Amino acid sequence: MVSASSRPRALIIGAGIGGLSAAIALQSAGWDVSVYERTCTLSGIGAGIVLAANAMKALRKLGADEQVSRLGAPIRQADIYSSDGRLLVSLPTEEQARRYGAQSYLIHRADLHSVLLGRLEPETVRTDMKLRRWEQSERSVKAVFEDGTTAEGDVLIGADGLHSAVRAQLFGESAPLRYAGYTALRGIAHWHDERFPFEQGGGFEAWGPGKRFGVSAIGQGRIFWFAAVNAPQGQELPPADRKAAALHHFRGWMEPIEALIAATDEASILSHDIFDRRPLAGWSRGRVTLLGDAAHPMLPNLGQGGAQAMEDALALARCLRQTCGTPDTSGTDAAAALQQYERERFGRTALVVRRSRAMGRMVQLAHPAAIAVRNRLLRLLPARMQISRLDWLVGYEP
Predict the structure, then answer these.
(1) Spatial distance between the Cα atoms of 296 and 348, rounded to a whole number of angstroms
(2) Helices 305-324 and 53-61, axial angle in degrees (round to 10)
(3) Fewer beta carbons within 10 angstroms: which end of the chain, N or C?
(4) Mean pLDDT across the stretch 64-80?
(5) What's the predicted TM-score (pTM) here?
């Protein structure tokens, strides 16, 4: 049994972006925090992650924005093309940065994870801790792990992702996974061509029938690319087939797509189907709540998964600080704080889930007539409208 602390205590299940952000915010609010991660190591995995203005503002409040900006790459150009290289729209990224008071960045997920870990007190995170179940009473909540270890706290926060064990015990399969209709390939290449100065902050997406390809720098000489391909569920590729499949899907597309794929180490290319869930009716029961993908998994089409988890973390810490009082209190008002957190965050995250799914339907169009209409509308869209339509999302103040 982990000993109790005189300070209110939070147990966080999951050491991803949301879990670490919540730990930073709660420690800053005077809470004792323990984070439990099911994997054996905290070595960085994944590929690139976009951090729009709202994400960078959240990182600013977590004290991590300067490190992230040094390690990542600013987004200074973001164009959308047809697969044969015809420009559809050039997004006014610099004007957006001025409007929202923060530049958008791309960074390797492992680098972001490392920065967040560095903001925590020593020994906050424990690895190889797989949650078996949790129990709660009027006075506390207890986590029971597979190795027999238990830990007790004032609140338990499920930040354990799409397949959350905390969520499963709370709500079962009340909102099953929804397949997006497309699968993803992602890779990172060390590649340079003077004709394509991505390292200066450039990037683009190319859209074709039922497929799209995106590329951008993520800092330190690395170029991140992703591909989304309409496909039946369950068609994920083994590592040895991913590079050949990507080259096949994008043969003949605009430069330098094929060159980037060819320059990527085959063993590092990731492949996975894309899922979300319909928004739940609620996230919390008593002293237990959810955060990030455990609460509201969303499709990646708006680049908001990490940003929304960080916004959750800041809102949760603020609600707990305001409701539970000073760090010397016992946390008896924790359940009320979790309900307040849920009320504040539910509407916004549900909207992002819906808009991300709608965006996916638009960008993954396969019918030629529908594509022609979409492309014409994009070419006619004024720059001012391109920015204002995202005010609600990236102009948000965490």
Answers:
(1) 10
(2) 40
(3) N
(4) 94
(5) 0.94
